[in-house]
ABC transporter substrate binding protein
Amino acid sequence: MLAALVLSTPAAARVEVGSAAAEAEVTVGCMFPMTGRAAIYGRDSIAGIRLALADLAAQDASTPRLRVLVEDTRSKASYAVRIAEDFIARDQARFLCGMVSSGVAHAVSQVALERKVILVGTDHASSRLTIEAFHKYYFRVSNDSYISMAAGAHYLAELQQRTGWKRLAFIGPDYDYGHVSWNDLKSNFERLGVRFELVGTFWPKLYEPDYSAYIDALMQAAPDIVVTALWGGDFIAFLKQAATTDFFRKTRLANFDTGANYEVMVALGERPPPGLIVSARHHNNWPDTERNRRFVEAFHRAEGRYPTYAAQGAYSGILAIAAAIRKAGARADSDALVAAMEGLRLELPEDPEGFTSWIDPDTHQIVQMQAVGEVVPDASFPPARVMAGKWRVYRAEDLMPAPALVRERRAQARGTAASLP
């Protein structure tokens, strides 16, 4: 039976961390949901920011003095745009960061472009932000939908060789992230030559409370594999509702971008549904390196709980901003800071031994390895009783979109925009 993950979401006020306004060299304005169903991501992001600032302070005297402000987006694009404008005009923010919803990120990205202020995405994942909607002031430091779906396509190609699965369905939230995830999966299937019969695509609204009609429709379609881009509380709600039916006795469910997030592992309890295939943008138990263990343990000491992947995303964003400032100088203009971030190499908790994350100059997307696995018993991170394991690990170079694909998608987007009245 799936356990409930109970989170309090009190009214959120502005959070300020790092240097005081009078002492800071650079102000960073971050936006996360801190109330509602996605509030855990805001809480963990703030904790990740604090860890990054502590690690930077422990390095050396050349570390830039950052003032980091955090406001609640309420998961609304229009509200986040107003926050971003205030950060720039009132607080003189030189960087924007954060966001969980890709729809919110698209709106704030336009503010960054118009104001020539760098935006560092730390959580949202739509690949359109770094391909079709790319501009020089946008960067992302967590896996995007293309990377995750490329890893998923590799995993399912290998699984097909072993089991011969043929029928596939997809269910994702009916906004940019869900639709782009499906397109990215199809693109990678085509690249790898994976043949399958599509038996349905399903598009519930974001924060849908009742998935029963979708679960019934999926069971009627009788897929061998269901791939989902549902995330956070939506994915947990879907799992809980599907577990009351025969769904998991008839099909396998895969979530390659958010399915192994720690909050999901907690919600699965001691008896998870069989056959789950999962991955996430950071894992507490992979890679088993000193750096990842140190990050997870430091978070646990500070917060009394284990992190969701949002924490490592926000941590990475602050490290990237500090590295760019150190390279270009605190007085550098935005264009010089853009140049400093392009190609930037960052040693992060999710990097296996021998690999260092880096930012692709052509897309401004961080390039990382990814592990996909199954849900297995593991009580090392209580209150979770299960974690992802039985890993299949994929090289970063095999997960990047080909330059030709990037050019093609950008050209198509320009053509579509040009044809609009």
Remarks:
- The domain at 146-283+370-403 is CATH 3.40.50.2300 (Rossmann fold).
